[in-house]
UniProtKB/TrEMBL annotation:
Organism field: Pedobacter alluvionis
Superkingdom of the source species: Bacteria
SUPFAM superfamilies according to UniProt: SMI1/KNR4-like (SSF160631)
Protein name according to UniProt: SMI1/KNR4 family protein
Domain Knr4/Smi1-like intervals: 34-167
Any Pfam family matching the protein: SMI1_KNR4
């Protein structure tokens, strides 16, 4: 995953279409300092879940990651800002659970954890499995998509971000 994040950083900075800090330009890195194992463990206790391995790997590489294109992709939050969507945006869950045809999505939203896009137009969500030892779900979620845009893990998502950057 580190190679993909580094390539996203280098490509976005080279293109020069987005605003970056001097440090990001000099280091060619859109990430933060890595999280510690202790910080990850504290967050897992706070959230009451064991986070998926690929997200833990991401955090050990960078505790947050700036999006190269905030109109299309969310920035990833620092571990200390990660929270359940029900605590961040309860109105969104209410909207999606009011209508029977949207209820399945609303139920997943009610369980989801916001790991990106906290102050942006879209979220990146981790949805814990209902049954132990089944897979987590990974969604980019925005009203303009509309709704959920699922991914097969974080690496798959970041590959899509890189492909988008290369095609821009």
């Amino acid at each position: 995953m580190k190679k993909i994040l580094k390539k996203i950083s280098e490509t976005a900075i080279k293109q020069g279409e987005f605003s970056f800090t001097t440090e990001q330009i000099e280091t060619k890195w859109l990430g933060n300092q890595p999280a510690t194992s202790a910080e990850i463990h504290e967050a897992e206790i706070r959230l009451g879940v064991t986070l998926p391995a690929d997200y833990q790997e991401f955090l050990l590489l960078t505790n947050g990651f700036t999006t190269p294109n905030e109109n299309v992709d969310p920035s990833f939050s620092k571990m200390s800002d990660v929270a359940f969507l029900k605590d961040v945006d309860p109105q969104l869950i209410e909207i999606w659970t009011e209508q029977i045809e949207l209820l399945d999505v609303g139920i997943k939203l009610a369980r989801s954890i916001v790991i990106g896009g906290l102050t942006e137009e879209q979220y990146f969500l981790l949805i814990p499995p209902v049954i132990e030892n089944t897979d987590w779900e990974y969604w980019k979620f925005a009203s303009w998509i509309p709704g959920e845009d699922p991914y097969q893990g974080l690496e798959n998502y970041f590959i899509n971000v890189l492909d988008f950057l290369k095609s821009a």
